[in-house]
Structure formats: C-alpha cells, structure tokens
Amino acid sequence: MFILSNFLVAVAKILDIGLTFYMWLIIGRAVISWVNPDPYNPIVRFLISATEPVLNPIRRRVPFFGGIDFSPMILILAIIFLQSFLVKSLLQVAMSMR
Asked: For 58, what's the count of Cα atoms within 13 Å in the CB-facing half-sphere?
C-alpha cells in the first residue's frame, strides 16, 4: 500500500508544480497583453500558443466588461481551486493509505 501512497504523493506534487507553472504562464501572458509585443518574438509566441487553447473557450462564455478581458483571472481562480481541492485531496488520500 505504501507504494501506491508514494505514487499518489508524487502525482500530487507534480500536478501542483505543473499548475503553478501554468499559472505563471497566464500571468506572463496577461502582462505582455498590456503592451504591444512583437508577435514574432519566440517568447511571445510560446506564451500565446501555450495559453490560448485554454483562454479562448473562457472568452467565448464570459462577456467583456468595459473592454477588460477577465478570462485570465477566471483561469487563475480555477487553477487555485484545483490546487486547493484536487492536489490536497490526493495528498490526504495518500496519507490515509499509510
């Protein structure tokens, strides 16, 4: 049982790190949207290609309020929810198996 417990702990930690990294990508995308970035810059292209598939469906469902795009904020809140619920639930299940 301890092997499954250790596996769940590892999955929870990797998921937490991945969600945190993706949240920083979204923050970076939001920051570069405040300026007029060079669309041919490889960093800008990476940020757009990494975040657009997730942000676009949110944009379609949430209307713009005064020209402000709230989709990054909604996605960051969803990531925080996943970190608070899913990751902690995985860790608690793993700890209860020991």
From this structure: 15
